[in-house]
Amino acid sequence: MTTPRFSNGDALRFGWLTTRAHLAPLLVLGATGLVLGMFSQALGRGGAGGALLTALVQVAQVAVMLLMTRASMKLFDGEHFDLANPAPLLEGFWRYLLVVFLFGLITAIGFALLIVPGVLLGLAFGFAPFFAVDGQRDPVEAFRASSRLTRGFRGQLFLFALLLMGVNLLGVLALGVGVVITVPMSVVAAVYAFRRLQGRTEAATPHVPSMTPRAV
After folding, report:
1. pLDDT of the chain, 216 residues: tens digit per residue
2. Is the terminal CB of the chain with fewer CB neighbours within 10 Å at N or C?
3. Could you tell me if 206 and 21 are in contact, meaning their C-beta atoms sit under 8 angstroms apart?
């Protein structure tokens, strides 16, 4: 049996603590993603006339996810990021967009084949976009690297995915606006799992200000 390289609980805890410690920029990204998602849904009801605009909004959503993922990697690695200067965070956007598109296409085909293949493909290739963010310039190699990284850990990753789905469901139930926190938190937690599977055992400890009032 393969020894787990990370704990699902530790990943979620790291995601929560890191999100609390960097709430303002992650909240901006989460809120932007929520607004774009609502806009995309509204355009989807408008018929074929808004197809181009819908596609542009979806591309913008991918850009926000790239920002969120690269920011989360920097936080794990103990580095700083600046949303006021997003260009470095968006480096390799077109490569990332291609990997995300291919991942969506592959899993969609898998789900069309009685669901189970889609789940298996999603677990095998789920970290391909992360490899694209992490400097893997060849999209095909990003998928191969994800398959190699997840081999032996897909059962744990399945449970981890269910856990993150549950967290985001709670965000939806919180009048829908809770996802502005749960989505960034989930991305940070997923980056924690990704880095630990890569063998990186040292994560930057997020500084969370004390909630206890100071004595005067």
Report:
1. 455 678 999 999 999 999 999 999 999 999 999 999 988 888 766 555 577 888 899 999 999 999 999 999 999 999 999 999 999 999 999 999 999 999 999 999 999 988 888 999 999 999 999 999 998 778 999 999 999 999 999 999 999 999 999 999 999 998 778 999 999 999 999 999 999 999 876 555 555 443 333 332
2. C
3. yes
| Host domain of residue 180 | 8-197
- For the entire predicted model, the pTM comes to 0.88
| Alpha helix (H) residue ranges in the chain | 8-21, 23-44, 51-76, 93-112, 116-125, 128-133, 139-150, 154-173, 179-197
Residue 123 tokens, joined: 């677990």
The Cα–Cα gap between 32 and 66 comes to 13
Compute CA distances 152 → 45, 116, 146, 161, whole Å: 42, 18, 12, 16
Give a yes or no: residue 210 inside a domain.
no
Q: DSSP letter at 214?
A: P
Neighbours of 186 (CB within 10 A): 25
Q: What are 102's two structure tokens?
A: 């291919």
Q: Which amino acid is at 128?
A: A
Please report whether residue 215 resides in a domain.
no
- Note whether residue 209 is domain-resident: no
